[in-house]
Amino acid sequence: MGIEDDATKVNIASIYFTDVALLWWRRRLIDEKCCETVIGTLEEFQRDLKKQFYPQYAEEEARAKLHRLT
Q1: Tens-place pLDDT, residues 8-29
Q2: Residue 67 needs a FRET pair 20 to 30 A away by CA distance; which of 13, 22, 24, 48 works?
């Protein structure tokens, strides 16, 4: 039985947050309550999470390192 509802997927994913990610998520929930900026889809959740924690040029740097190795 697969989970199809995005809200459920987001809630389940957030259960596994620790440390800084957990603090970010709690702040995000507070912001949702006061500003009504709700994460509506799994894609929005992934985008916000990457925006917060994924270095801006990490993908390009990884590709450049791989290219230098070959």
Answers
A1: 999 899 999 999 999 999 998 8
A2: 48
